[in-house]
Design brief:
The chain is α+β, with helices and mostly antiparallel strands. The protein has three helices and two strands; from the N terminus they run H-E-H-E-H. The longest helix has 15 residues. The model has no long low-confidence stretch (mean pLDDT 88).
């Protein structure tokens, strides 16, 4: 999920967390993510304008979980 600090990104994160997913979030700052969602989220500092940052986000999810359910 990207752009999580408000709007649709935050709503998507909340929905996936409620369904029991481990959510990897890419954004410039964590915006209080850990406080709000605890161990249900992993924050990866990401500039969505940089392809290399997006690749890093996806690889982080796959390396930690062995899979990627939703992209």
């Amino acid at each position: 999920v990207r752009s999580l600090n408000d709007g649709i990104g935050l709503s998507i994160t909340e929905a996936f967390v409620q369904e029991g997913y481990l959510v990897f979030v890419g954004a410039r700052s964590s915006g209080g993510l850990i406080k709000k969602f605890g161990k249900s989220v992993r924050f990866i500092k990401t500039d969505v304008k940089k392809e290399s940052d997006i690749v890093k986000l996806v690889k982080s999810a796959i390396n930690l979980t062995g899979r990627l359910d939703v992209f």
